[in-house]
């Protein structure tokens, strides 16, 4: 990590020269950010065309004699509304453009450390992009201007992108631990950053991985978590933290796998058996995730009904596990079987293993504090519904559907087990939900996950090749 500053400056310089040399000849796919930009552009075209049509109507009414005043005023009111929509659509394009340009810059980096550096400065880089777009406007050299400004901010002492802005909080966190558990930079104690700032931790982690890598299963790409104000620990758009990391930070950094098997098994069973509401055990250092999007969506619907609270108050967090280090997430079944082999006659553990036969919903666990910013997407249940969730799957919205959770998921899986054809309308709605709600992730993979809550045949092939049952059987 010592040469990151020089590498970043060199990267900026190379990107400037490369982009200047090739101009607009190569426009690479920046994934969901390009999809979002295309969507906002299409929306702007639609709104602009409607505005032009409304403006022509106003002009016609103005030129025509005998027009009722109420009719004329009504047309003017509609034109003003369309004008406002054009402004909003224009701002949405600017935001999408900023995200897309940043994604393109990120794609240029092939070095993991430099990639992390750029991700750390994402808000400041995007601010530079937005400011430059606002000042330069119609200029074919805007990309080179953006890169040159980033270069200046990265190379100049005190610049917005200077390397000190990355290392300073990490060093402060390293100096504080373990003498000041309440230090403000607690978020930097997550697994990934501790590997960088704590040599002893890194050595211990390397040993642990050598012991576990032969049988620790890989996590599926996406894991999901439902949370609201009544959830244990802390969850928001940037991080999730266990109860122990809040109330007992001194013990929250103890790796479950480093504990004696009997103690680890006790903590694991206590977490998996805890209540869904109310204060959790302050010693609970685990956080639950699921590989089944269906499972966490039904959980969100159930919490709204049980709490009660509105869909706007319940959120779903999706993390991209490929952006986290190995060992960040562990399958609950892997842990249960591991401790079943090392502890004897544990009734709680045996009961959990028995329940997983009928209620295996792909649960995964993380520990302590997990900073997921720039590696996740958080969306409210309300936004999912407004984007078409109940149009695609109306069954969970039924009154009896809101009253159940695990049993309801099992019933839905049974109900949706027969193969069915997929309509173009269903594909359109699933894509719409993925684009509007999970724009930071692979929209195609999320759309497929939504569609395959039900077992489906592909509509465009005579061979009827079957789509994977991502929603019916938890992956991983």
Describe the structure.
By secondary structure, this protein is mainly alpha-helical. The protein has helices at residues 4-22, 32-63, 69-108, 112-120, 122-136, 142-155, 164-176, 191-197, 199-212, 243-247, 261-272, 293-306, 332-340, 347-358, 381-386, 389-392, 399-402, 406-415, 424-437, 443-451, and strands at residues 222-227, 234-235, 239-241, 286-290, 315-320, 330-331, 363-367, 369-371, 376-380, 420-421, 456-457. A three-stranded antiparallel beta sheet has the order 1-5-9. It has a three-stranded antiparallel beta sheet with strand order 2-3-8. A hairpin with a 3-residue loop joins strand 2 (234-235) and strand 3 (239-241). The protein starts with a helix and ends in a 19-residue tail after the last strand. Residues 1-30, 170-189 and 461-476 have low confidence and may be disordered.
Strand content: 5-15%
Count the domains. 4
Structural class: mainly alpha
Question: In total, how many beta strands?
Answer: 11
Mean pLDDT: 76
Radius of gyration: 26 Å
> Poorly predicted ranges (pLDDT <50, ≥5 residues)?
1-30, 170-189, 461-476
* Fraction of helical residues: 55-70%
End-to-end gap: 33 Å
Strand order of the largest sheet: 1-5-9
Q: Biggest β-sheet, characterized?
A: 3 strands, antiparallel
| Tally of helical runs | 20
Give the tags.
476 residues, mainly alpha, 55% helix, disordered C terminus, 3-stranded antiparallel β-sheet, 11 strands, 9% strand
Layout: helices, strands, pairs:
Blueprint: H1 4-22, H2 32-63, H3 69-108, H4 112-120, H5 122-136, H6 142-155, H7 164-176, H8 191-197, H9 199-212, E1 222-227, E2 234-235, E3 239-241, H10 243-247, H11 261-272, E4 286-290, H12 293-306, E5 315-320, E6 330-331, H13 332-340, H14 347-358, E7 363-367, E8 369-371, E9 376-380, H15 381-386, H16 389-392, H17 399-402, H18 406-415, E10 420-421, H19 424-437, H20 443-451, E11 456-457
Parallel strand pairs: 10-11
Antiparallel strand pairs: 1-5, 2-3, 3-8, 4-7, 5-9, 6-7
Helix pairs in contact: 1-6, 2-3, 3-5, 5-6, 8-9, 11-13, 13-14, 19-20
């Amino acid at each position: 990590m010592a040469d990151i500053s020089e590498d970043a400056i060199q990267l900026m310089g190379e990107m400037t020269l490369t982009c200047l040399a090739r101009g607009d000849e190569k426009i690479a796919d920046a994934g969901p950010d390009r999809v979002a930009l295309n969507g906002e552009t299409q929306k702007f075209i639609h709104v602009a065309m409607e505005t032009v049509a409304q403006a022509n109507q106003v002009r016609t009414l103005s030129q025509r004699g005998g027009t009722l005043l109420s009719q004329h005023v009504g047309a003017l009111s509609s034109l003003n509304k369309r004008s406002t929509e054009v402004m909003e659509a224009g701002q949405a394009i600017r935001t999408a453009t900023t995200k897309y340009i940043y994604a393109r810059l990120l794609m240029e980096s092939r070095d993991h450390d430099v990639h992390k550096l750029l991700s750390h400065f994402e808000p400041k880089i995007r601010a530079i992009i937005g400011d430059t777009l606002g000042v330069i406007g119609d200029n074919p050299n805007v990309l080179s201007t953006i890169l040159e400004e980033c270069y200046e901010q990265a190379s100049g002492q005190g610049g917005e992108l200077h390397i000190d802005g990355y290392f300073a909080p990490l060093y402060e966190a390293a100096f504080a631990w373990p003498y000041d558990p309440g230090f403000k930079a607690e978020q930097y104690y997550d697994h990934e950053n501790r590997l960088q700032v704590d040599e002893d931790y890194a050595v211990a982690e390397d040993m642990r991985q050598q012991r576990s890598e032969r049988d620790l299963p890989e996590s599926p790409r996406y894991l999901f978590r439902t949370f609201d104000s009544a959830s244990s620990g802390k969850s928001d758009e940037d991080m999730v933290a266990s109860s122990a990391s809040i109330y007992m930070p001194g013990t929250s950094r103890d790796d479950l796998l480093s504990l004696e098997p009997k103690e680890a098994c006790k903590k694991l069973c206590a977490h998996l058996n805890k209540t869904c509401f109310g204060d959790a055990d302050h010693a609970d250092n685990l956080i639950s995730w699921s590989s089944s999007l269906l499972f966490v969506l039904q959980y969100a619907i159930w919490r709204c009904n049980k709490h009660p609270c509105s869909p706007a108050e319940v959120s779903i967090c999706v993390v991209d596990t490929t952006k986290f280090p190995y060992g960040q997430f562990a399958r609950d079944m892997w842990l249960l079987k591991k401790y079943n082999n090392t502890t004897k006659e544990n009734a709680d553990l045996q009961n959990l293993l028995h329940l997983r036969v009928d209620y295996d919903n792909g649960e995964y666990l993380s520990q302590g504090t997990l900073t997921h910013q720039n590696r996740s997407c958080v969306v409210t249940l309300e936004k999912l519904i407004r984007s078409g969730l109940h149009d695609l799957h109306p069954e969970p919205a039924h009154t009896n559907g809101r009253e159940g959770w695990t049993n309801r998921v099992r019933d839905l899986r049974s109900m949706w087990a027969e193969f069915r054809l997929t309509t173009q309308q269903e594909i359109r709605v699933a894509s719409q939900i993925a684009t509007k709600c999970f724009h930071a992730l692979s929209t195609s993979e999320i759309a497929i996950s939504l569609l395959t809550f039900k077992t489906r045949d592909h509509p465009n092939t005579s061979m009827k090749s079957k789509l994977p049952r991502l929603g019916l059987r938890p992956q991983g």
